[in-house]
Each structure stands twice: as C-alpha cells, then as structure tokens.
C-alpha cells in the first residue's frame, strides 16, 4: 500500500514510528524504568572508572609541567618508578656536579625518596629528604609555609619535618606537634600552604635525617640538576647518563612513564566497564524482546494495513534507542554525582580532584549506550520484521 506524501516507512512517517516506540515503552512503565536504571548504573560505572584515569592524568600532567628538576639521574631510571629507592652512593653527587657544570647546571640537588604504604590511605606517606641548606625550593618551587617555617641549613641532621597541608591534616598534627616517620617521632616545624596538588601530601625532612631514619646513610635516591636553559634538558640528560653511566630523565620522560602506567590501568577500567555494559545490554534485549512478544497482534494489524517489515524493524530499534539514550543520559548524571563524591574524598585526603569528566568522555558514554541499545535490539527487531500477517493475527 503506498503511503501518503512524506511517508517513508510503509504509510508511516518518522514521527509515527517515534510515537509507536514511545507507546511500546510506556505500556510496561515499571519494567522500562527498571531496565533503564540497570543500564544507567552500568553507564555511571563506566563514567566514574574512566573519569578516574582522566583526572589522575591531569593531576600528574600539571604536577610535572610545573615542578621537579630539569634533569634527574637515577640508577634504574623508569624501572624505579616515580619514587626511586636510595641505591646511589653519596659520592656520585660530586661527579654529577663536575660533569653538569660545563653543561649549564646552576644547581645539583641529591634527594632521598621513600613511600610509606598503608591499607588506610590517610596513613600512607611520601617522604622527601633534601639538603636543608638548599631547602624545599630546590625541587619544589613556589611552596611556602602557611604556619611555622621551611627547612634551613641549621636543620640538617635534626629530627624535624615540614608537612604539606594534606599530610598534616591526615596525621592530625600542626606546628610544634610530633609525627611518626619510620618509627621515630620528629617535630613538625612547618605546614605548607595548600593548593599544590600531590605536593600537599609530602613530608619533607633534612637529607641526613631521612638517610639515618631509613637506615641508608651515605645513599641517595636521585640527583636532580637544575639548568640555566631548561630547553636543553634532553641533551643534558643524555650526556650525563652517558658520562656517568646512570639513567637520565627529564620532566617529559617522567610524565611519559606516568602515562604508560595509566594506560595499563585504563585497560583494566575499560574491561570492568565492558562487563557492566554487557549486563545492561542484556537487560535492554530482554525488555525489547518481551515488548515484541506482547505486541504480536498489534504488529500483525500494522502489517495488515500496509506497514512494511522495515517499519516494524524501525519501531523496535527506535524503542531500544530511546531507552538506551535515556539510560545513558541518566548514567552520565549519576557518574557526575559519583565523581563529585570521589573528588570530595580525594580532596580531603590529598588535595586533588582524582576524577575528571570531559565532554568527550560524556559524549562517548552516550554514544556507547545508544549503540549498545541498538545492538541489543537487532534480534527482536528482526523477529518483528519477519512476522506474517496471518501468524500475527492468530496470536491470542
């Protein structure tokens, strides 16, 4: 039967198909809402998982673009991670100074880095041991004391520490208090201003003090080199590494290591998201299939008055697409709420926003949800399109 002007689907306009799809969804409203909720939770999980990766990536990118040495020399390079163990002898510092001076070095800073891990994140700690006469600014420019003071040359060898704002909050101490560092109680002489990302979680001690407390006297984790011209960092790093038989890294190299590690965790988060989305997709397929079964006589009537198989296929696919897009939008909103909760926790713990929802990620979530809905409806849509008029009208 030919359709009226403007018809493209066997006598039906796209608005007719949309209306039929909406009626199909609203006929069993509770079932539709429960299915949408299941898919929305799956999408929200994907949004939160992937937002965590993006947020942490942004934090590290901002961190390593603004702070840290132009070049750092370690024994094992990227294999040691972001906090290399104290496995270099003190004697290497003099060698670095001699080799780096002709290359435009203005400062050479040995450092000890240690990580205290705990099941309770609030009890974990990052320790930096720096020469007290050079101070925190040797590696972390722009950090100022909000209360108390920073390290000075007179502090070398003393059991004192300067805490980042988050570190002080997590430890429950302030200036004049005492905090446990590797089993020894040290006096807090300063608490730094906040707003410096990961730096807010660090505890800074004089180099000699941390070497003694860690049981690694005469050993350092890395030697940092500050250059007159930071633009020459890659060449200087390569030259020093070759001359001293060490591993040289620039800020960009360290950031690349972080990005590689995050890509590995991204794969794990995507895997978890896929599992959740498959479960949500099965729920959509079940709802659409039940809708087709319950409306066999209706579809038969539509065929009898001239609707083509493509029309019925379009109705079923439109139902699934509407359901999936609504669930996707709700999932993005739920994900935003989840991100807000995650960021509230990480902000109080470490002074950072660990989850970041970008426009691309939000659109991707909507697109994946819509695609999942259409894929889940392919079999029910094919079933509806193959119904014969006689078979459908005989269905009770």
TrEMBL record:
Its main location: membrane. The keyword Transmembrane helix applies. Residues 272-388 form the ABC3 transporter permease C-terminal domain. Residues 32-241 form the MacB-like periplasmic core domain. Belongs to the ABC-4 integral membrane protein family. InterPro entries: ABC3_permease_C, MacB_PCD, Macrolide_Exporter_MacB. It comes from the Bacteria. It is found in: Cell membrane. It is a multi-pass membrane protein. It comes from Deinococcus metalli. This is ABC transporter permease. It holds the Pfam family MacB_PCD. The chain crosses the membrane at residues 33-53, 270-293, 314-336, 356-379. The keyword Transmembrane helix applies. Keywords: Cell membrane, Membrane, Transmembrane, Transmembrane helix.
């Amino acid at each position: 039967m030919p359709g009226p002007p403007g018809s493209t689907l066997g006598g039906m306009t796209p608005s007719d198909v949309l209306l039929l799809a909406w009626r199909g969804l609203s006929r069993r409203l509770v079932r539709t809402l429960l299915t949408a909720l299941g898919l929305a939770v799956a999408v929200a999980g994907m949004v939160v998982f992937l937002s965590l990766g993006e947020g942490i990536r942004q934090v590290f990118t901002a961190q390593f673009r603004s702070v840290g040495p132009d070049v750092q020399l370690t024994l094992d390079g990227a294999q040691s991670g972001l906090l290399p163990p104290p496995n270099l002898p003190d004697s290497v510092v003099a060698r670095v100074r001699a080799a780096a001076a002709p290359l435009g070095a203005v400062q050479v800073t040995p450092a000890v880095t240690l990580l205290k891990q705990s099941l309770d994140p609030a009890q974990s700690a990052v320790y930096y041991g720096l020469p007290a006469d050079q101070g925190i600014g040797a590696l972390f420019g722009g950090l100022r004391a909000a209360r108390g003071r920073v390290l000075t040359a007179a502090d070398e060898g003393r059991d004192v520490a300067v805490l980042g704002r988050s570190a002080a909050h997590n430890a429950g101490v302030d200036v004049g208090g005492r905090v446990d560092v590797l089993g020894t109680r040290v006096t807090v002489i300063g608490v730094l201003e906040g707003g410096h990302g990961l730096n807010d979680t660090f505890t800074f001690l004089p180099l000699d003090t941390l070497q003694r407390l860690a049981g690694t006297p005469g050993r350092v984790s890395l030697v940092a080199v500050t250059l007159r011209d930071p633009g020459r960092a890659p060449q200087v790093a390569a030259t020093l590494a070759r001359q001293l038989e060490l591993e040289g890294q620039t800020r960009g190299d360290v950031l690349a290591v972080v990005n590689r590690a995050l890509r590995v965790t991204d794969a794990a988060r995507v895997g978890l998201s896929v599992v959740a989305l498959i479960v949500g997709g099965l729920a959509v397929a079940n709802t659409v299939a039940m809708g087709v079964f319950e409306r066999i006589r209706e579809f038969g009537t539509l065929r009898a008055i001239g609707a083509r198989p493509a029309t019925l296929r379009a109705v079923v696919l439109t139902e699934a697409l509407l359901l999936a897009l609504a669930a996707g939008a709700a999932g993005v909103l739920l994900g935003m709420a989840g991100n807000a909760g995650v960021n509230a926790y990480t902000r109080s713990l470490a002074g950072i926003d660990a989850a970041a929802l970008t426009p691309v990620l939000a659109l991707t979530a909507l697109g994946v949800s819509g695609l999942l809905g259409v894929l889940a409806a392919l079999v029910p849509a094919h079933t509806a399109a193959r119904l014969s008029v006689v078979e459908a009208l005989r269905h009770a």
